[in-house]
Amino acid sequence: MSIAALEVRGLHAYYGESHVLQGVDCRVDHGEVVTLLGRNGAGRTTTLKAVLGLVGRRSGSVLINGSEAVGLPTHRIARLGVGYCPEERGIYSSLSTEENLLLPPPLAGGGMPVEELYGMFPNLSERRASGGTHLSGGEQQMLALARILRTGAKLLLLDEISEGLAPVIVQALSRTIQKLRQRGYTIVMVEQNFHFAAPLADRFYVIENGRIVDSFRAAELSGRLTMLHEFLGV
After folding, report:
1. What is the pLDDT of residue 106?
2. Domain map of the chain by residue range?
């Protein structure tokens, strides 16, 4: 079997005394879009954070392109080519759009140049001199995604990027994800908006109480809808 972009084995994660992840196992191959499904509090966001070492304590194995990342500090994990788009977006209000975009250092070769990113996100081009606090929620989300694409990261961890956004912005983000897949990016998404994630993902993992309880491919989705409706309310 070829080396995966991301392979998680027996991953446990803790916040203080709280044992959140209890042995997560999953695999994401190069060029795949994989969505983590689950109720709020099931451990989806913690899985992304644990891959990056952004939890109090973790154990198990996290292989990124075959390299063990458990035990590495977060900045070293990022340099393995991992980009993280957190739910809170992390836009610096005192910086302009372009300054926010240029702030992170390159992690690897092949990052998108600024003008190419402006072509992918025309709203940002129009607002390049605007301060972070003057951007709409959708523009902030576009900026957060564009920022990691500039770094050269090829494994993207995206946490609830459609949350609270207008339908027209959600549609634009969907088109962007499709373009990134065509370019060979590997994407792991946490999404509460099932109708946004369903057409984009190649595979799905369902998390409950810090464990993977089911996994299936996009072709199997229609046969799982009753289960997902009962389990997730979608």
Report:
1. 87
2. 1-81+156-164+185-234, 88-153
